[in-house]
Amino acid sequence: MKIDHSFSPFTKINSKWIKDLKVRPETIRLLEENVDSTLFDISIKRIFSDTMPSQRRETIERINKWDFIRLKSFFKANENRIETKKQPTNWEKIFASHISDKGLISIIYKELSQLNNKTSNNPIKTWAGDMNRHFSKEDILMANRHMKRWSSSLIIREMQIKTTLRYHLTPVRMTKISKTNSNKCWRGCREKGTLIHCWWECKLAQPLWKTVWRFLKKLKIELPYDPAIPLLGIYPKSLKSAIPKVLCTQMFIAALFTIAKTWKQPKCPATDEWIKKMWYIYTMEYYSAAKQNKIIPFAITWMDLEGIMLSERSQREKDNLCMTPLI
Ligand SMILES: [Zn+2]
């Protein structure tokens, strides 16, 4: 994008360019009301030529004579610039509507931060492209809700923010940014480091996901082995039994966080780390539930998983982490 900080055909008649000519405000208003608002609309060919349409003559005659001379010479001098018909650039679309330079920096800042959002803040689209899949509007809505779903505890919020940030920092993307790094998976598996590879397909990440599904099976939760579920929170519509989505989401967030933590290390994200994270979430949720007198729904949600987590950890680790049953 080219920044052109002077006027264009799309600049408004009440902009500083015209005001600087010391044209009276009444004249500007007259033109706005009876002709139109951009320089292109009030150009020399349309207004200040001798062959102008008769209905406009009346307007012209009402313009103060000095203003008329000033405007006519301005349009004459800038004829080429104003008369050239072209598509407005992005900058013109944004800035031609602002009548002065007042607050321009904050306007630019706002526009730039929006541009930034548009390009980088749509992980779902990137995911869909990477997974070579199409998600329906409903699916995307579900995924967005999943991303924004904050739990009662701060720890989950923090994990979600950290993992969401990582969504954007894949080797493929970094190569595009810095143009020097290799676009291979940072775990060293020599595969191309796409979003779906780094979070799901990588042979170093797969063991953890297999473990997650093993836990789900123990909990008698039947879910297809599909990356869209843990990564985007898109659950298939046709499920045999009701799925405790809250619990699943906590397990998936803990797994994503475990993967994010070893993002650049040539090793598998460890099951122990994952259980440790889940146990942490579990304790936080417990205190939060206790405070709100919601122990029973909490117990219903976590009871089975508590037992599985305890049985999967060695006694020494349980002592280290103070993993004592809460329910
Ligand atoms: Zn890999």
UniProtKB/TrEMBL annotation:
Q: Which domain of life is it from?
A: Eukaryota
What PANTHER family does the record tag this protein with?
REVERSE TRANSCRIPTASES (PTHR19446)
| Name of the protein | DUF1725 domain-containing protein
* Origin species: Equus caballus (Horse)
